[in-house]
């Protein structure tokens, strides 16, 4: 028999042993995470969803798929937030563990250890202890990516069972976070779609539009969620911001409404919330609440055409805020909470060690490792490296992660109403993993390393100066509203 007809040799035993060790370490990290953070931290959003799960009445302001799932798990296991924490932690560690074990099996042990290093960053793990739609999305997407990596990085086609698991996880991620479609669709298109870039772009655009429409049908028709009007908040925010810059000639608002918005300081780059609160500008926009989404967004389109600079200035100011670039130190809504908010539904706080862990997360958030803009810069630099390489399993997987991260971040330039760091958890984690995978495939050229370093410096230095020089922001939600 010639060598050409011999069956492929199995992976070396040392690789399998290394993968098994990574798997064992991941199981220990999962167990340790559950022990440390049990029964999970709940904030306002999680408390509201648990209340819906208990009452059996759902609305679409929060994802009904999560409340429905919580209802089922609570009925089976009790434990308040515990079952949801166990779910999102298991998904989180499954994703990191499978990718790390795959890299170890391929002989890339340093990359495998680096993946686990990312998984224990205090900011990522600290947020994963909070039972939220964002952390449920992160867990589901990481688990899907890990399953894909286990097969694709070894050049093996996914079996049907793995494809079904990935489909369920990505569907859940899409439904559990309203803007997750900008992450899930590019990931699927790059990994399973056509090779040509123009075809990928068209398929991504069409897929996003189709999934957005389908999601609404599922939320209301299948999951039985009542309409809350959440889809109109973006129009309220943008219309009010445009009108505030030219109160004499607003679109959508009357001049009197626009002047009131300005007088009460209700337009803030940080978030839309003052426009929805009863004691601020909520009553001022009451007339707009009578309009459905279609007429509202037609008014917004007219406002953008008539006042393009006002719109661009507003969106850039908000993008800077949510990307946490030129902002003061301690910019709010970055640090994962260490205790559960007071609530009437019986959700408890974890033990006293959790606030100490979240103190580490605070330091992490204040460093460039906690700035979405720094991760976006790295993602763009890594994308340049990836597209210059020939097609290969490692490169293609990294490219899919980067496309998912960058498209989601890009969506915040036009579709975002708040600056919470948790919205960026998946793009940050995906960028870290893609960079590790690309580096493990082949060292970056000196030119690529230098270019990435310069790009990061141009982002980090101004951001650092801003944090040293700008006045401290308000330290409470109520103060941010003023």
Automatic annotation (TrEMBL):
Protein name in UniProt: Glycosyltransferase RgtA/B/C/D-like domain-containing protein
Regions crossing the membrane: 16-38, 85-104, 111-130, 136-153, 160-191, 197-214, 369-387, 399-418, 448-470
Transmembrane listed as a keyword: yes
Superkingdom of the organism of origin: Bacteria
Keywords in alphabetical order: Membrane, Transmembrane, Transmembrane helix
Species name: Sphingomonas glacialis
């Amino acid at each position: 028999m010639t060598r050409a007809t011999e069956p492929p040799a199995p992976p070396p035993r040392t690789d399998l042993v290394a993968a098994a060790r990574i798997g064992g370490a991941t199981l220990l990290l999962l167990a340790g995470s559950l022990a440390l953070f049990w029964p999970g931290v709940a904030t306002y959003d999680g408390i509201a969803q648990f209340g819906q799960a208990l009452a059996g009445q759902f609305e679409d302001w929060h994802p009904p798929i999560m409340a429905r799932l919580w209802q089922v798990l609570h009925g089976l296991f009790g434990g308040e937030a515990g079952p949801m924490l166990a779910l999102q932690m298991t998904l989180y560690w499954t994703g990191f563990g499978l990718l790390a074990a795959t890299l170890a099996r391929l002989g890339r042990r340093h990359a495998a250890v680096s993946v686990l290093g990312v998984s224990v960053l205090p900011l990522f793990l600290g947020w994963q202890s909070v039972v939220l739609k964002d952390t449920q999305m992160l867990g589901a997407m990481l688990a899907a990516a890990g399953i894909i990596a286990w097969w694709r990085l070894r050049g093996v086609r996914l079996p049907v069972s793995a494809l079904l698991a990935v489909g369920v996880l990505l569907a859940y991620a899409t439904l559990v976070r309203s803007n997750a479609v900008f992450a899930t669709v590019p990931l699927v298109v790059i990994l399973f779609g056509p090779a040509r870039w123009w075809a990928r772009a068209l398929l991504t655009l069409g897929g996003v539009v189709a999934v957005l429409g389908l999601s609404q049908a599922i939320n209301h028709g299948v999951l039985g969620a009542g309409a809350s009007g959440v889809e109109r908040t973006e129009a309220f925010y943008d219309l009010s911001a445009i009108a505030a810059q030219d109160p004499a000639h607003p679109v959508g608002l009357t001049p009197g409404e626009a002047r009131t918005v300005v007088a009460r300081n209700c337009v803030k780059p940080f978030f839309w919330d003052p426009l929805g609160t009863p004691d601020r500008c909520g009553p001022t926009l009451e007339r707009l609440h009578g309009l459905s989404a279609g007429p509202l967004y037609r008014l917004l389109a007219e406002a953008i055409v008539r006042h393009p600079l006002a719109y661009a200035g507003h969106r850039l100011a908000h993008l800077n805020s949510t990307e946490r670039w030129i902002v003061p130190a301690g910019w709010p809504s970055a640090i994962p909470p260490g205790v559960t908010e007071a609530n009437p539904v019986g959700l408890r706080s974890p033990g006293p060690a959790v606030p100490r862990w979240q103190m580490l997360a605070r330091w992490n958030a204040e460093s460039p490792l906690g700035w979405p803009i720094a991760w976006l810069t790295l993602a763009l630099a890594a994308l340049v490296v990836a597209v210059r390489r020939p097609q290969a399993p490692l490169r293609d997987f990294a490219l899919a992660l980067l496309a998912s991260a960058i498209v989601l971040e890009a969506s915040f330039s036009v579709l975002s109403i708040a600056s919470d760091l948790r919205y960026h958890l998946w793009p940050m984690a995906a960028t870290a993993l893609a960079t590790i995978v690309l580096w493990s495939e082949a060292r970056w050229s000196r030119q690529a390393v230098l270019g990435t370093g310069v790009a990061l410096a141009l982002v980090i230095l101004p951001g650092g100066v801003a944090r040293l020089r700008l006045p401290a922001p308000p330290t409470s939600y109520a103060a941010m509203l003023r």
